[in-house]
Amino acid sequence: MDLIIPTLSQGLLWSILALGVYLTFRVLDIADLTVEGSFPLGAAAASACLVKGSDPFTAILVAAVAGMLAGIITGLLTTKLKIPALLAGILTMIALYSVNLHVMGKANLSLLQIDTVFTKFSFISDDRQLVTLIVGAAATLFLCLLCYWFFGTEIGAAIRATGFNPNMIRANGVNTDVTIVLGLLISNAFVAICGALVAQSNGFADVGMGVGTIVIGLASVIIGEVLFGTKCFWRCLVSVVLGSVVYRIVIALVLELGMPPNDLKLFTAILVAIALGLPLLQAKYKAKQWKEAAK
Amino acid sequence: MLDIVHIAKTFNPGTITEKIALVDVSLHLDDGDFVTVIGGNGAGKSTLMNSIAGTFPVDRGSISIDGEDITSWPEHRRAKYIGRVFQDPMMGTAAGMMIEENLAIASRRGKMPTLRWSAPESNRTKFRELLAPLKLGLEDRLESKVGLLSGGQRQALTLLMATMANPKLLLLDEHTAALDPKTAEKVLDITTKIVGERHLTTLMITHNMRDALRCGNRLIMMYDGKILIDVKGEEKKNLTVPDLLAMFEKAAGSELTSDSLLLS
Question: Which residue numbers delimit the ABC transporter domain (chain B) (predicted)?
Answer without folding.
Answer: 2-249
